[in-house]
Amino acid sequence: MRVITSITEVQVLIEKLRREGKIISLVPTMGYLHQGHVSLMKEGKRRGDVLVISIFVNPTQFGTGEDYDVYPRDLERDKKLAERAGVDIIFSPNALEIYPRAYQTYVQVEEVTKNLCGLSRPTHFRGVTTVVAKLFNIVKPHIAIFGEKDFQQLVTIRQMVRDLNYDIEIVGMPTHREEDGLAMSSRNAYLNPPERKAARSLYRSLLRASELFTSGEQQVEKIIGEVKKIIASEGIITVDYIKICDTENLQDLIVVDREAVLALAVKVGKARLIDNLVLKPLH
Ligand code: AMP
């Protein structure tokens, strides 16, 4: 496994590998790797000949007052985990390598970034699409793998790839969870024991909503009411949003009469946590 910090060095290496006919897969991450990341890496390994992961805590996707400075980082630990998962190349540039002085170009996907996390993090997705576009240009992957845990991010990236004609296959992978259902996230490291315990209610509430939906409830207000009740029973959680949206355009629904995503974002202590579940009508 090679660890590379320079853009030029990665580009030269990838050019050579592509000439040899190798299929390149890319898993972009912000590091502090967990089993959710590993499931993406395994899929990358399965689909490609050369597995590249990027580890870069991307400053442009954090708003002012958010956790950029304290976001957990541990490259040595990440290297061991990546090596075991079969990663061939770790690309881990520093912020100045990606955003040199006088940097001024951004990629903005318009509509699907407005709702959900876009409401409370208005510059977040611009940062995500900018860095992912740059990673695509640097690593030139044939395949890139993302988690459905960040549902809006996945929809946004698929839109960017269509709109900008990137010749890259985007693969979405299911959310990997702890035994009690909490979605794995690097930010779970912020949780103290009572917060960690309270956070179990997020997945529990999603499952309850799914049950309600399968037993015939289609009214968004009713389903969300139930989710809120379960989360509110844990006093230390504050809700940013709980919404049910069309999975294609991420517009709010009133009735779940098509494939929809139930998505939520909450604050538990210092951690902003997100989770979601797709609701699929039977007919
Ligand atoms: P991050 O390092 O949090 O930016 O995540 C890097 C990639 O891993 C993104 O595509 C995430 O959606 C994905 N990811 C994060 N957590 C999980 C999880 N629990 N299960 C599956 N994929 C995940």
Q: Could you describe the 3D structure shown?
A:
The protein is of the alpha/beta class and about 280 residues long. The chain has two domains: about 1-175, Rossmann fold; about 185-275, Pantoate-beta-alanine ligase, C-terminal domain (Pantoate--beta-alanine Ligase, Chain: A,domain 2), CATH 3.30.1300.10. The chain contains ten helices and nine strands. The protein has a six-stranded parallel β-sheet with strand order 1-4-3-2-5-6, sandwiched between helices. Strand 8 (about 260-270) and strand 9 (about 270-280) form a beta hairpin. The radius of gyration is 19 Å and the shape is globular. It starts with a strand and ends with a strand. Bound molecules: adenosine monophosphate. Adenosine monophosphate binds next to helix 2 and strand 5.
Identify the notable features of this structure and list them briefly:
Rossmann fold, 3-stranded antiparallel sheet, 283 residues, Pantoate--beta-alanine Ligase, Chain: A,domain 2, binds adenosine monophosphate, globular, 6-stranded parallel sheet, 10 helices
